[in-house]
Amino acid sequence: MASLTPHSLKIKLWAFFIASCVALSAKTAAPNFVLVYIDDLGWADTSVEMIEGRENTRSDFYQTPHLQGMADRGLVFSDAYAPAPVCTPSRNAMLHGMTPARMLNSTLNTDRSSKEYRGKITIPQALKLANPEYVAAHFGKWHIPAMKPSDAGYDFTEKEKGTGNGEGDYLDDMRTHLPDDDPKRLFSLTQMTKDFISEQADAERPFFVQLSHYSVHIWHDSLKETREKYRALPRPIKAVDSDYLPDDEIPDFKHNWLLNYAAMIEDTDRSFGDLLDHIEALGIDDNTYVIFTSDNGGGLRGNAPLQGAKGDLTEGGIRIPLVVCGPGVPKGQYCSVPTAGWDWLPTFYQLAGGTAPLPEELDGVSIADTFTLGDAAVVERPGDALIFHFPWYNGEPESSIRRGDFKLLKNLDTQAIALYKLSEDLSEKYDLKSSYPEMAASLEQQMTEYLDSVGAEDVNQLRAGFLENIEGEWLTKAEARADSNRVAAAAGNAQAQQQLAEAKKYIKWLKQEAIFTRERMAMSEDAK
Predict the structure, then answer these.
(1) Is 423 helix (H, G, I), strand (E, B) or coil?
(2) I need a labelling partner for 169 at 20 to 30 A (CA). Which of 129, 159, 393, 527 fits?
(3) CA 268 from chain center: how many Å?
(4) Does position 28 have pLDDT exceeding 70, yes or no?
(5) β pairing state of 417-421 and 406-411
(6) How far apart (Å, rounded) are the C-alpha atoms in residues 478 and 499?
(7) Among positive and negative, which fits the CA dihedral 515, 521, 524, 527?
(8) Position 1 pLDDT exceeds 60
(9) How confident is the model at residue 19 (pLDDT cuts 50, 70, 90)?
(10) Of 215, 214, 35, 216, the residue nearest 142 (C-alpha)
(11) Helix (H, G, I), strand (E, B) or coil at 159
């Protein structure tokens, strides 16, 4: 072996130094973030166990092999929560790192949040604060009426004013159904996301992209070939005879058709797998965090083992699937640290290298340490609790708090409370307030003090606005539509007859809602 001369040794040492700097730079480069946000996906609606070793926390029928592959090389969060049990407040809260109660957007009502905007910073804005080089994009369902994507700091989106649910079922004319080969825009949205990622990777710019799928929200739709696959599988317990009718005997977009729902979940997973493959093919997977989650609880025909579903604060309404992979994330591990959607903003900010203090009004805290330490991570949050507020003016209004293993649920009309120990009673079957009266009192007081401190919405104030809309505008317009069609309908005009029937049905519903709302307003006042 030839000996090294001083000159050649110097060259080799310099080359080693340069290589080390390049390697260090790669490790410390600003990470990318890909947030895949599913609409209404239930906690146990995938083939991934949400609690390790518990078979009943995964679906025995729906198949999500790509998500399972991600879980095998990533981290599953067993105790992840949506900010709210319905979409708009969840999306708004996650975007701003604040609870729906603080944002004055705890339900689908957005009147106050639009007039009294309380947001301080958004996820794209926080990332650009950490590093101005970040580029942000949003594709898919927006559904935050209080602001446009560009106002939130997104550089790219397919619709400047944002989108709602309709774009997931219809073309841009909002009348023509989407093509059969792109149900719920699954594949076209994924392609938009891939194109955006490719552009940023080529330019070596760090990026954040939120892919907000319209699936699995109603109306449900899927590829015919995937439905046929599930038709041929052994029949699951939750199936009914009508699920197995031929396609042409089931109305378009029938939302309670189990084979269609199962196929839609797998089609969503198929598009997700395509996205994961693209990230890997670009060679950026070692510096890209991928987060897969849902905006609220769901579950077709039950959410077992959880109680309840979308629209209430039981576990089935707010506990959601969450799987994360990326640099430093342990493979095939589980984390039981409770987290909520409002934690993403400070988490991404920390991972992006942000050091300047974030606004004090934020409720979210960084869970970045769980990405490497799992349950060994210490996550400190004020009050050590997650607090949820859902003053649902059109149903059961509730508030809830989780601290440690205990969860308190309060009905805002009856003032009744229930206390559950989730580590022993995931299904919320056993009310323990009599066994732990001090814990129940402590949790209720903490929850009430927080909601008072942020000036959270009052259910009867929301009902008053709802009633004003019904009796001051909606009924008047509906009755006018009915009157405009009566003469033509009596003359035998089929279209007018159909429109008259629809108007009458809507008028009947509005009057029933007005009665219900007044009754609940009185009940709530009496209970106080």
Answers:
(1) coil
(2) 393
(3) 15
(4) no
(5) antiparallel
(6) 11
(7) negative
(8) no
(9) very low
(10) 214
(11) coil
